[in-house]
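Look over this one:
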Amino acid sequence: MTYNFDKQINRRNTNSYKWDIGENELPMWVADMDFEAAPEIIAALEKKVSEHVFGYQTLPDEWYEAYQNWWKSRHDIEFEKESLIFCTGVVPAISSAVRKFTTPAEKVIIMTPVYNIFFNSILNNGRVVLESPLKYENGRYDIDFDDFEKKVSDPQATLLILCNPHNPVGRIWDRETLQCVGELCEKHHVTVFSDEIHCDLTDPGKSYVPYASVSEICSNHSITAIAPTKAFNLAGIQSAAVMVPNPALRHRIWRALNTDEVAEPNAFSVPATVAAFRHGGPWLDELRQYIFENKQYVAEFIQTYLPKLRLVDGEATYLLWLDCRAFTDNSAELWRTIREKTGLFLSKGTDYGGDGRYFLRMNVACPRANVIDAMHRLQTALAD
């Protein structure tokens, strides 16, 4: 490999949210990576620092072109410059959309178990969470379309937050599945906000399907959130975009983002984004292979030493969804026991709704030595 993903980076005492933990604890929870950024991104940021002035920023053409060219070459979708709007992050965009496209006490649909911050964006804005639980069969999740249609047909439900690919279960939704989602949402007048922040973190040889690319129907009623931050580990840079082909929807979300003051770039968001999408492809491809090998190590370890534990079949993200129903029906208690006993800090599945009470989430975007350490800690914790 050209890049050294085995390199240990000491992130303690750096104001790292992930690493603000006990001395003997190992964090495998929040979704950021323990790898150095791609050299081209570091160089672009160093160049920006060398200017010594960090005033208000504008969006140059190269920012738009970076998104357009990346999605055309990597994901086979073309979109116009006018369809892109800068925002400081996917979560701020979701919260703005919830406020703009729904009214207090209306319902917002999510497919659970799902990224826990979706709940916050709904509840904190005085809306009601309407869960459409995914079906879990034979170690794999699918959409329960009978339940989903019941939920989208509720006249009080006007917005769906879609996770594509899905966090935490790791599913890449195929074109046929997304088409069914789109047809039902169109039938029942539901707007779709598609969170596609994990789209570049698929297993080698796997690719995702952008929701807006599925059909004219899907394109016309959707807002898609995209960003370099998850794939290139730039969450602290605060840079994202929404892509909205429909001019009427676009104007509404543009107003929402500007009203909420989350539509202006900071000094580093543009150069980091442009460098990532222009030059980061080789780094990302090696990263995906490395993470895939981490996943394989976990799968083999579980099969050999923890056969009662089950790893859910997923094709995307660096987040593993561990089926612990042989050990518990309350993953919050199991999570606490594992942390207290071994220092291994995972995410408790109860945070994600649905059947999360049986699951734990593990982040394997870290050097292999950390993954090995984590699995031995987990084995120790589950020994009793």
